[in-house]
Amino acid sequence: MTAQSEHDEGLEIAARIERRWAWIATALIALLVAVTIYTGLHWAMMPPSRVETADPRTLHVSGEFIESNLGAAAEADGSVTVRIVAQQYSFTPQCILVPAGTPITVRATSADVVHGFLVDHTNINTMLVPGYVSTFRTSFAEPGDHPMPCHEFCGTGHQGMWAEVKVVDRDTFFKQATNARRLSCVNQ
Ligand code: CUA
């Protein structure tokens, strides 16, 4: 074998390896795009937070987010919907009551500036943006208490902006739900 043909063979091997890696990189990108589209469409990972709108100036006057409609609502299909409003510097309700082992839909928005919405020891983590409804689905396996801090700097009182999520067992929750249209644990 001449030096020239050895050189050519080396180039051919390098080109083959490069082509293979180009395919692997392309496949990885395609996989990531597919995962993004799938989780986006199925709400599996990223909560859609800029789909529905809600006018922050009239939240307290009418519509879904008036105060009497906030808190946890038992739905006919056995699931629970929780509605929350964030404002400088608190959440309404300040204590969120939900049942364990139950599909929960959270619908939340902000009355003023961007706030953070995070429930400790869960993967619940989103932003509450004025003008938009943040919606996500979740469930809690076990009863227990979870702190819920605002984790988006929202002004001078930001570090004092906290609420709590109290997860109780299903029976306790639905027993209470027969007596109240909306539930929270604010006065419990
Ligand atoms: Cu609300 Cu930080």
Automatic annotation (TrEMBL):
<dbReference type="InterPro" id="IPR002429">
    <property type="entry name" value="CcO_II-like_C"/>
</dbReference>
<dbReference type="GO" id="GO:0016020">
    <property type="term" value="C:membrane"/>
</dbReference>
<protein>
    <submittedName>
        <fullName>Cytochrome c oxidase subunit II</fullName>
    </submittedName>
</protein>
<keyword id="KW-0186">Copper</keyword>
<dbReference type="GO" id="GO:0005507">
    <property type="term" value="F:copper ion binding"/>
</dbReference>
<keyword id="KW-0479">Metal-binding</keyword>
<dbReference type="GO" id="GO:0030313">
    <property type="term" value="C:cell envelope"/>
</dbReference>
<dbReference type="InterPro" id="IPR001505">
    <property type="entry name" value="Copper_CuA"/>
</dbReference>
<dbReference type="InterPro" id="IPR008972">
    <property type="entry name" value="Cupredoxin"/>
</dbReference>
<dbReference type="InterPro" id="IPR051403">
    <property type="entry name" value="NosZ/Cyto_c_oxidase_sub2"/>
</dbReference>
<dbReference type="Pfam" id="PF00116">
    <property type="entry name" value="COX2"/>
</dbReference>
<dbReference type="GO" id="GO:0004129">
    <property type="term" value="F:cytochrome-c oxidase activity"/>
</dbReference>
<keyword id="KW-1133">Transmembrane helix</keyword>
<feature type="domain" description="Cytochrome oxidase subunit II copper A binding">
    <location>
        <begin position="77"/>
        <end position="179"/>
    </location>
</feature>
<feature type="transmembrane region" description="Helical">
    <location>
        <begin position="21"/>
        <end position="45"/>
    </location>
</feature>
<keyword id="KW-0812">Transmembrane</keyword>
<keyword id="KW-0472">Membrane</keyword>
